[in-house]
Structures are given as C-alpha cells and as structure tokens.
Please model this.
Amino acid sequence: MADDRVSITITAGIADVRMTRPDKRNALDGAMFVALAEAGARLCTESNVRAVVLSGEGASFCAGLDFETMAGLGGNERGHPGSMTDGRITHLGQQVAWVWQEVPVPVIAAVHGHAIGGGIQIALGADIRIVHPDTKMSVREVHWGIVPDMTGTFMLSQLVRADVAKDLVLTARIFDGREAHALGIATRLSDHPYDDAMAMAREIADRSPDAIRAAKALLNGLFHSGAAEQFAAERRQIGSLVGRPNQVEAVTANFEKRRPNFVDESQR
Amino acid sequence: MADDRVSITITAGIADVRMTRPDKRNALDGAMFVALAEAGARLCTESNVRAVVLSGEGASFCAGLDFETMAGLGGNERGHPGSMTDGRITHLGQQVAWVWQEVPVPVIAAVHGHAIGGGIQIALGADIRIVHPDTKMSVREVHWGIVPDMTGTFMLSQLVRADVAKDLVLTARIFDGREAHALGIATRLSDHPYDDAMAMAREIADRSPDAIRAAKALLNGLFHSGAAEQFAAERRQIGSLVGRPNQVEAVTANFEKRRPNFVDESQR
Amino acid sequence: MADDRVSITITAGIADVRMTRPDKRNALDGAMFVALAEAGARLCTESNVRAVVLSGEGASFCAGLDFETMAGLGGNERGHPGSMTDGRITHLGQQVAWVWQEVPVPVIAAVHGHAIGGGIQIALGADIRIVHPDTKMSVREVHWGIVPDMTGTFMLSQLVRADVAKDLVLTARIFDGREAHALGIATRLSDHPYDDAMAMAREIADRSPDAIRAAKALLNGLFHSGAAEQFAAERRQIGSLVGRPNQVEAVTANFEKRRPNFVDESQR
Model:
C-alpha cells in the first residue's frame, strides 16, 4: 500500500520523487508517512543520483494530515506515527521532513496548490523551495490545538526571523506563495515550479558531484546545529498536548463547525 | 510611585499593558524600570491571560532613558539599575526587556512615536512588533558613549543580519518605521498599531491556550540559545565603558551641544 | 613583492586599505594572500585607527584566485596557502577574509566591478558592504570542483537564509549587486561605494572610540559562535576534494573550454 503513495524515477542523475495520492491532495496517512521515509532512505544510498526534485501529483503538493488521521486527534491517540526510528534524532513524523536534509545531494521542492501543516513542514525539509505564487500555505497546527512537531519549528528558524516564526505558528494563518517568498519561506516563485525545479536539478547535475555533496554537507554542518535538541523538544511539547481537553475541543469544534470553548488552567 | 508608571487592564483574556508617563514620552527612570519588571512578573503568573499588548500612552512608545538618568551617565555612576535580580540571567535594566519573553503567552508591542535606546530594546523584547510607519527608532547608545546593554544586542541578532546589526549599533542612526519593517525590526506596519495589536491578541486568545503556550515555549527554546552568555557580555562591556573619559565626554558634549573631543588609547 | 599588493593610508583615524593589483583585477596570488593578512594584522595594533575602508584599485574589488593559481588546482597541489598560522582558528586562505573581523574597529568594504570566489569571501569578512549595483558577484568554487573554504560558508550563514546559501553555493551562479542587496549580501547599494564607505567611516570616527570598539566586540561575540568549528570543516572538505579526479576534471575542462565529464562514486 505504501507503494501507491510515492513514486521515484531516476533519469540522467536526477531523481523525480512524487507524492502520488492526488485524489486526497497527497494528504498524510500512515502509508504516506512510511512511503516518504522509505523514498528518502533509498535516495541516501543511490550513488548515481546528483539531485532530487520532490513534488506532488495533482492539484497540490500536500494538504497536511489526512482527514481521518485528524479525526483521530479528537480522541486520545497520537495523530501520526510517533515511534523513534533506530539511531535517528527523529520519530517517523519528523523523519518524512528531515530525510531530505539527510539525502547527500540537493533536494528541490516544487510546491503548488496546498502546503499545509505537515505539508509545509515537508517542503521546509527540502534544501530549496520553488513555489507557485498562488500556493496556499499555513503552519496550521495551532488550529487543531497542537504545535508543529515534524521538524517545522527548527527549519522555520533557519528561514525566517523569530517574530515571523511566532506570527505564523501562533496565528496559524493561511498565506500565499507570494507572501511566502517575501517572508523567506519560498526560495523562488515560479508559474511552473516543477519545470523550474527540474531545470535547476539539471544545472546541479552538470557540476562535479563530489563538490556538490561536499557543499551540502558543509552547509548542513553549520545550519543543523541544535537540531536534535529541538526535535526532542517538539516531541515533548506535542506529547503534553495531544488528548488533553483543550486539544480535543479544538478538533471537535472544528468538525462540528462551531466556535471552540477553551478553558484556562485556572478554571480546571 | 512605580504604580504611576505602568497600568495593566485584563479583559477577556487580554492584558492591556501601558507605559503611563506620557508627559516624558514614557522615558525610563528608576520607577519605570521597577514598574515594567513588576508588570511582566505579574503576567507570568496570570493563568487567565492568553495574550498581552504592550504600548505607551501619549505621543510615544518610549523615548529611552530619562534625561536626568542620562545626565547621571556624565558622572561616575551607573545610568540605570544594574543589580542582578535573584536567579535571573538579567539585571534589572535587561529584565524590563527580557521579561516579555518570559511571559508564557504572546506579547505584542504596539509601537508609535519614538522607540529610542532603552525604548527600542523593550520593543525588541516583545514577540511581535506592530509599528506605525512614522515611528522614530534608534539603537542610540553609542551616541552616549555606551553600548546597548538591555538585551538589545541579543534580540537584534534574531531579527537582522550581522551587518545590519552593526550598521544600526555603530552609527546610532535614527530610522523610521518603514525602514524598520524593511530591515526586519517591525513585524508589521500599521497606521493604528494599538488597534491592530488588540485584534491580533483577540485572534490568539480564541485559540487553545495550551497550544499557544506550548508554541511560544517551543520557539523560545530554539531562539534563546546563548542568551545568558550574551547578557553577561553586555554587562561586562557596559561596565568597562561607563564613567571612562570618552563616555563622560560623549554625554557632556551632548548636553553642552558641542562636538565631542575623544582620545584614542595611544594618547592616554 | 607583497608590498606591491596592498596599500594602507591612515588619515584622521581612517585607514584606507586598497588592493593594488588593478591589471589583474586584484586577483589573489601568494603575494596578495600575504599582503592582505599582513595589512589586517597591522590594523589590529593601530590604536589611532577608528574605522577601515577596504577596496580594490582599478576596475574591480577582487576577481578571485589568480589564473595561474587556478591552473595549479588542475594538478595535485593546493591552490592557495593552506598552512595554519600560529594560534589562529584559520589558515592563511581563511585569514585574509577573517582578519577584518579581528580588526577591533569597523571595517567597511567598498565593492565594485567583480567580487568572485575568494573575492566575495574577503568582502563577506568585512563588517559592512557598500556595493555598486552592477558588481558581478559569485560564490564560484563549485564551478572549479571545490567548495568555498575561505570562511565563506560561515559568513554567508550570518547574512542569508539556509536555502539562499545553498542556492548560491550549489549553482555557483553569477549575480549582480542589486540581487546581492535583495538577498542580504550587500548592506547598501551605492553608485559611489568608495565615497559612501569613506563617509560612513568618518561618521563612525566621530563617535567615542571606546564605545565603537566595545560594540563591535559585543556583536562579534554573538555572531562568531561556531566559527572555529566551521573553519575546520571547510579545511576538511577542501582537503578531500582538491586533486581528486572530478576536481581535476572541473578545472581541466574549464581551461579546455569543453563540457566536463564527471564520474559518480559508483562508477569508480
């Protein structure tokens, strides 16, 4: 089943990786989590690959957690796979975003349609983001009574200022690709993000693969400082939120299309 | 007396905190330092508060150190309270800016008129800054022969590039809200910063308070790395400057409205 | 011979430092490396200097490594002096960029014409960059099968986002001063960068020299965290690239004006 979720085609040194669940806007269910992590793991070992393009088939890059998974968040269970994978600094939910940093060659995300919640966090895991100006994006987790816990807080901090990160996370507001570019979340805007991502991948594939791998490693060594600690903090915070009354109320009110009624600590 | 300096009104989960010394453009004297630190300390314990708006009554947010305090800098004494508060990483002068980071819910500064010296450092302590385009802002300390020592060097480094931080600190130049926005110091521009800050606070207060507190804690954990060390460095540097001949000359020449005559180390 | 490469003129507290090899666009050969490092070392001890302006005579700031030095990279030898200098965190190739951070007073680079490869890395070592809009700039190393190893990866990380740093390093593309300003690499644009740099230096020289030195030290203490580790990583990565088949092929193909033929690890 995970085989249906992601396709990999390698041509002339370029891996074309696609989320292939267009009928669900590539929403993240258990099979999609596994398929993305496996795709990344495979690309870590492909010595013939010089660049990767990551995109979504159909109308969107990735609309976030699957509806049914979200409904699960209204009950007392974890919304996405949370078990730690062996020897990693991530759990599976974090690994589907972080693995693109572990891939030793550049990963370019071509983003269009929607990149929401888990979807934007996966895009933030790529080295470069080429984004359609009309893309709808949001760090949406607070809307569901949770916090971004798929490496998004760490990757955001490399791209935007402290106040912008807080603005996006705290308001959970939806913004378009143009604003993403102005804020620093989109590397470039393009009306044809997939085509431009492939063109950039070809340009990189024409360079010395040794130098390209060394350059990514050298920059990552610098930018990844503190990642493991922050990922652990994400896991602690989400663990303290999921299933608590206010978090259940956030999800339940959303599904019942009513205004949520939250309680402050003093009233419990 | 400190009671005159800051007011707190809590309505529907929003704390409206105002500096209330409009006849002095909310300049910082000893009573204002104490009142700000106490206001922040109180908000750290108010479990019914979901968001804070920090603003200044009258024509300005805060024009910086009080004139008489500045005059004191021309003599051989510390310009603002420098004693460490128990168990903190700050002294009182730093605490009035840093306490807004310690408040567990989002703090939005509504900035207008002037935010100069200590005033801009307090604004930098907020999570979000909504700024009137005509606000006069400056990291003004070098003009007085000192350096920013109220957490400003650390908070600046989270918002602007290394060269921009140096430009602003080294030239002590005055810039307006529009440039502050272009540089990254203003989160948003608004012709009505107080109204827009209150609207944003209401939006945040409608979210799950657990998720909002967790999100601020999670992002602060990331962005605050190195804060204690830098605050100690600020205290060391200011301690080596205040009362030295060039610093006294900077203040004296300013008050005498003449060009200062500084000496280089080799001439002493 | 090194005496021909760099001139220093000190007037009214301002050191006017110029690369003086205009017939070669101030390209970096062994003598230029030594002359730049010595110029910086001298300015570390001049107690009468309050600000430094660093520029290049003739048509360009600095076009990068000297052609003959580059040709050397096609053989099995180091392209620029790599020996560690006593007690430093840099080797000589890094020191010519880093020394401007060690100089205790502000260093303003006036950049025009070309700032390529080693040239842009030297510009990044200055505190402030005033750049002509038509300047041709590039982090060019990957084009030669190597990586930036003259402190450029570290200094880039203080000015641009992680994705922008990767874009510039991985594509080795040439961009102009206008884009440099939009990206954060130029502090300011100017049609007369040297004149404007001198004006800024005069403004800084009118401030208390104690406060100016303290401010640079205070900000550097913050921004330099992690520098030594990253410089060591640069040295390791370049050591693993120079003289290897793909690196030699990059240089050889460039000089033979043909498309390079790189091999992936799996094919060796």
